[in-house]
Amino acid sequence: MKLRLIRRDSASRLAMFTAPVLALVLTCLASLVLFAALGKPAGAALHALLLKPFLSWYSFSEVLLKMAPLLLIAQGLAIGFRANVFNIGAEGQFIVGALCASSLPVYFPDGDFPMMLPAMIAFGALGGTVYALIAAALRTRFGASEILVTLMMALIAVQILNYLLLGPWKDPRGFNFPQTVMFPDNAMLPILFDGTRTNISLLFALLASVFAYLMMQHHFRGYQLRTAGLAPRAALYAGFSAPKMVWLGLGLGGLAAGIAGASEVAGPLGQLQRSVTSGYGYAAIIVAYVGGLNPLGIIASSFLISVIYIGGDSATVSAGLPVAAVEVFQGLLLFFYLLTFTLIRFRIEIDRKVPA
Amino acid sequence: MSGLEFLLAGTLAASLPLLLAALGEMVVEKTGLLNLGLEGMMAIGAAIAFICVYHTGSHVVGFLAAALVSTVIAMLFAFLVIGARANEVAAGLAIGVLGLGLSALFGKTYESLTIKGLPKIDIPVLSDIPVIGPTLLTQDIVVWLAIAGTVALWWVLNRTKLGLIIAAVGENADAARSIGYPVMMIRLVAVAFGGAMCGIAGAYASTVYTPLWADGMIAGRGWIALALVVFGTWQTGRVAFGALLFGILSLGELTAQAMGVGLPSQVLSSLPYLVTILMLVVISRRRSGLI
After folding, report:
1. Is residue A356 included in any domain, yes or no?
2. Which of A219, B59, B195, B246 is buried most deeply by CB count within 10 Å?
3. Alpha helices for B80-205 (secondary structure H)
4. In Å, how far is A200's CA from the nearest CA of chain B?
């Protein structure tokens, strides 16, 4: 007896919804078993991870704060992923975006010009885009894999960040901590809801979602990108330019990550510090996949992952779980999603060979 | 100890985790797959090895357990990519994140505990050679085994039929399948081998090189190993050479001080990545297809 995977002609709409839900259920079950095996109160842990974030307005607003960068970056990345352009280094573009945005308040700490904040966002956007486009140039010009180049560039970005924070950009009155001066008020993003830290970067992310939806589902360019991903040869025969897809896929990913990086320093951090490399760029890859690389799905998945981040914080207190539990949960979620996604694309057929 | 002696004594041990993980990944990539989960597989190996050595006092048990657990994690990757035909980039990241998370979860209660490392072996005659005797040629048993293993791997890949089959599977899977080679099985075994090597690499890092467990102690070595495979252009000898080079660089700050170089340590730390990008550009111009 042999199992075979047969590609379906079209994925059922029901399966598109079932796969992520099934993946979430499997992830919860697997985590329950794992936490219980480690002698942690498994029920309390899951309660903290998935429900606590909804139990107070403040923790819910923190979910929205986390959601902004994840949603923004994931929307940008998904556009590339659908065209088979694998930008794995969004973390680097995020850091460079944060660096470029921070350069303004660092060099003009008095910040007495009115365009400070818009200029910072523009710098961040530009920095992230250019940093990603280096990979596009190397891929289109020399054929160098963008997977490895973006990854290496992300690791280099961390070193640039360290260099600046330990050297020229260190706050002279910061007790030798590796961080810049605190940004002036006009370098900070406006708060969306009073009494919370949720700022207008959430609107950037939602706007990007609308843009991604219109482009990918209703615009010819989106059709070209999707074709390049699903049927590269067909795209080639149709005369869609492959290099153009690489430039576009990487550029939009870098743009989104750069804006997210700028929003992080101009938002919850209020200065450039090492904790800017908190892994949003990598988590956004998980968000993009679990959202089915679909602009609407990504809104849901970014919300889910943000809930787990905030829930993970409270689980450290109420269930004694280390922060790493969040990573385990994310890893399991992506694992089970990739598995259940196979059930959307393929049906399993059983060959029974009758022994002669 | 002078700067040069420090480098002679420390480079092999610093290079070892990079070398082992990179050789494992090289075999995986030779069969036509790309597993990005090295960092996670090394981390879980490091945590498991430390826990086992702490409780049993035996490095053999620690290394075996680490290899086993990392192989299990690698099998999850194989299950997704070979079994379920999932995207290998996403699958590699999934097990990478999972491995990192699990290592922190399991290792949590073992932070700040200590164990004994492995003794350096004095080899008669060799250890008496001036300068390099007490430094370069006085290493622990794992270093010597790894050197022997590297030579053995070179021999298998370049001088045996198995090596040819592995190359055939990677270069043209359809052709290999049509002449009857079990492509899936060969890839499965390669991924398992890659996992085991990462586990051993992690075990060396946490129980010999610096005998302690700390969350995040792999510190990017998995990514460097990934870079190393490209740097070595999928050839055992060059990967080993690159491991030594990157090993010296990973001693970064210390090396710079020892040599009196006035560069910021971050420049040295970035060099492996920069060189890898350069290497990618050079080799991609010459051939296409391979990652």
Report:
1. no
2. B195
3. 88-107, 141-159, 161-171, 173-178, 183-204
4. 30
Note the pLDDT tens digit of each residue in A296-322: 999 999 999 999 999 988 888 888 888
- Burial of residue B75 (number of CB atoms within 10 Å: 0-12, 13-18, 19+): middle
Average pLDDT over residues A9-37: 85
Q: Tell me the CB-side half-sphere exposure of residue B109, using CA atoms within 13 A.
A: 9
* A345 contact residues in B (CB cutoff 8 A): 85
Which residue would you say has higher pLDDT here, B62 or B259?
A: B62
Which pLDDT value is given to residue B260? 62
Domain ranges, residue A143: 2-351
Q: How many helices (H) and strands (E) does chain B have?
A: 12, 0
B243 and B228 Cβ atoms separated by less than 8 Å: yes
Helices A146-166 and A242-264 cross at an angle (nearest 10°) of 30
B118: closest CA of chain A, how far (Å): 30
Please give the Cα distance from A346 to B84 (Å, whole number). Answer: 9
Q: Measured at the alpha carbon of residue B89, what is the angle toward residues A313 and B84, in degrees to the nearest 5?
A: 100
- Domain at A22, CATH number: 1.10.3470
Q: What's the whole-number average pLDDT of chain A?
A: 89
What is the model's pTM? 0.92
Q: CA-to-CA distance for B206 and B215, rounded, in angstroms?
A: 11
Whether residue A71 lies inside any domain: the answer is: yes
Please give the tally of structural domains in chain A: 1
- Size of chain B in residues: 291
pLDDT at B253 over 70: no
CA angle B75–B76–B78, rounded 5-degree value: 60
Subunit contact A338:B277, Cβ cutoff 8 A: no
In chain B, where the domains are located: 3-218
Least confident stretch, A27-36, A246-255, B164-173, B271-280: B271-280
Across residues B45-66, what is the average pLDDT? Answer: 97
Least confident segment among A156-160, A239-243, B224-228: A239-243
Interface of A with B in 284-303 (CB under 8 A): 285-286, 289
Cα A8-A11-A13 angle, rounded to 5 deg: 155
List, as ranges, residues 103-162 from A with C-beta within 8 Å of B: 138, 142-145, 147-149, 151-153, 155-156, 159-160, 162
Q: Do A152 and B277 touch (CB under 8 A)?
A: yes
Least confident of A91-105, A172-186, A188-202: A172-186
